[in-house]
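User: Second chain of the day. Same drill as before.
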Amino acid sequence: MRRLLSKVMRPDPRKCEETRALMSDYVEGELDVDRRKHVERHVRFCDRCHTVLGNLRRTVARLRGLQDTAPAGDDPEVVASRIAQGWRERA
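Assistant: Same format as last time:
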């Protein structure tokens, strides 16, 4: 249904920009009720913004998972190795 409506009701590119500017705060739960509803309404009918929001949510979830990894010191090779290991464990 959303895809059909998305094709019939082409979103205004300015609305997409406005919505995308709010997405990080939306994912973090930092928007007031009106702005949150704006994002939810827009992504309900805009496939592109719906996809962007989904990607952002997945990215934030993965980044939050990385916070559990303690720094491995100043050696960049050790840090890179630990990061790669964390990604492999989560994949």
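Residues 2-90 form one domain.

User: Great, on to the next one.
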